[in-house]
């Protein structure tokens, strides 16, 4: 009689556990990073000899072997790899778009202001001594200088924004690595095949997903569930976290930007803070994207600085070749400090300082504007090239971002189809375990009734 009690009790206990697991699955069906739990039930081991030393012919009921996660390591690895590619492409696309906005091109943008300046000089050439038109021309030059300075300042702001994002990403990466080190230590202390172990594995894999969008990683899961993380872009597999030294980070990330806007990503050795390895070309993920786009924007800033400096030189040289309506030699109309386009400015607001004349006629110098300032090496052509190159790069980056995002979404859907919760399946399993639970409870009730009947015989 004790056997049937034990069998019934084991059924109530373990099928109740299975129902609890289904409840956990259902309640977390929409929880990011949650992997479906499966209960493995096996026959309880036979207890040995029964009454009078005879071998028992009945078993001891059911027992829970383990609670496992529905997880496919290959699918998870593919998600992490595509997440790294998508993160890199997204960073490039977002900031190239910001650079496109910063260049301020269009009907009211920098290139339009430049064209307006040259148009005003053409108008001035028809009446070079007209004070109103002189004022309009110097005002147009001032607007052009301000527009160039504005675009240059905006591009610098883009560089600053890239640096801020890099700093934020590095902070999150280092925090995730620290948390993963703690998760490794907790996994070692936690019995495998338990709810707690499954929860830690969920946390581990969610952190790996977060990391993989920011850096390219190889994640090697040991048999005990701990993870070793190496940087995928390095030939020797730069170790970031060891699975054997639980709680110990092997390295932390740093980010720095020079005055030109070039971004450098490093990994500082945990045991030697002076050892900071340059990982700019191998970080992967959004960090690599930030390095790439930072370099592109830095080159654009350099090109704009050169174009602005050339514009200052060309305008001043042109004006120096003529004379003003009062007969004075033309002086500098523009200034720039250390070749920095953000500092370009007019030297005067007096339109009569424009040297419109030359030795041949009162508007002779104005008639030379096109040949002196509007050629293939003029500011308009240089700025148009800068805008065009940026537009092409932005378009290409957007396409790449879309394609890599689609690949990531496909990989994530495949993984989730293997590890996610299907409510219809869970409902069927729930019905099955409820019936088994109720039957086990009925066995207990029958055993208790029978035991009571036997006791009433005495």
Structure summary:
The protein is an alpha+beta fold and 458 residues long. The chain has helices at residues 2-27, 73-102, 110-125, 131-189, 195-214, 285-320, 364-367, 369-373, 379-419, 423-455, and strands spanning 37-43, 62-69, 217-221, 227-231, 239-241, 251-257, 263-269, 276-278, 334-337, 340-346. The chain has 2 domains: 1-70 and 421-457, no CATH class; 72-419, no CATH class.
Word description of this protein:
It contains 10 helices and 10 strands. It has 458 residues and is of the alpha+beta class. It has 2 domains: 1-70 and 421-457, no CATH class; 72-419, no CATH class. The strands form 4 sheets. Strands 3-4-5 form a 3-stranded antiparallel β-sheet. Strands 6-7-8 form a 3-stranded antiparallel β-sheet. Strand 3 and strand 4 (227-231) form a beta hairpin. Helix 2 runs antiparallel to helix 4 (131-189), helix 2 (73-102) packs parallel to helix 5 and helix 2 (73-102) packs parallel to helix 6. The radius of gyration is 37 Å and the shape is rod-shaped.
